[in-house]
From TrEMBL:
An example molecular function term from Gene Ontology annotations: hydro-lyase activity
Source species taxonomy: Eukaryota, Metazoa, Spiralia, Lophotrochozoa, Platyhelminthes
Chief location bin: mitochondrion
UniProt xrefs under Pfam families: ECH_1
UniProt protein name: Enoyl-CoA hydratase domain-containing protein 3, mitochondrial
GO CC terms in record: mitochondrion
GO term, biological process aspect, one: fatty acid metabolic process
InterPro entries cross-referenced by the UniProt entry: ClpP/crotonase-like_dom_sf, Enoyl-CoA_hydra/iso, Enoyl-CoA_hydra_C, Mitochondrial_ECH-domain
Signal peptide location: none
Highest taxon above the source species: Eukaryota
Function statement: May play a role in fatty acid biosynthesis and insulin sensitivity.
Subcellular location, record wording: Mitochondrion
């Protein structure tokens, strides 16, 4: 599930939001790393924060300790969506439905490769992603998805992670 945030997410709470793949914030939500205000810099939350938002925003949050708004969190990449407070649950459930309607092994493979490739130099990232694309093409759901596209119908996912073996001629 995506993280759902209402109220104030501070320190480790903000770290948790920054660590999530997807996060939906209520429009009234706020985010802060206020440790500096009590003499304890938010060093551990800074790890996830620096990997989620741009450096200027991370330093603003870490050095001032002041909260940012949900809209600022969205603009900086800390959250993926902002919803009206009353619509937070429904918006999150819609996002969940959008993700879970796809093939589980395809999503899993894509997510794993995404996080691997962002740590690599560009050329290595392309090599990794090219090999992943080939492996993805061998999944039953990739073949089903391509067939469904060509036949103009909705795919029927098997959710199998067993590679399809080509038949020898």
């Amino acid at each position: 599930h995506p993280m759902q945030v209402s109220g104030l997410a501070t320190a480790a709470g903000c770290q948790l939001v920054a660590s999530c793949d997807l996060a939906v914030a209520a429009s009234s939500a706020r985010f802060a790393t206020p440790g500096v205000k009590i003499g304890l810099f938010c060093s551990t939350p800074a790890v996830a924060l620096a990997r989620s938002v741009n450096g200027k925003m991370a330093m603003r949050m870490l050095l001032t300790g002041e909260p940012i708004t949900a809209q600022e969190a969205l603009a900086s990449g800390l959250v993926s969506h902002v919803a009206e407070d009353a619509d937070l649950e429904a918006t999150t459930e819609t996002l969940v439905a959008m993700v879970t309607r796809h093939s589980r092994p395809v999503v899993s493979m894509g997510k794993q490769t995404f996080y691997q490739q962002v740590k690599l130099p560009r050329d290595e990232a392309y090599r990794l992603c090219e090999s992943t694309m080939l492996a993805n093409l061998r999944l039953p759901d990739a073949q089903e998805g391509i067939a469904a596209f060509l036949e103009k119908r909705q795919p029927n996912w098997s959710h199998s992670d067993k590679e399809v073996v080509e038949k020898q001629k």
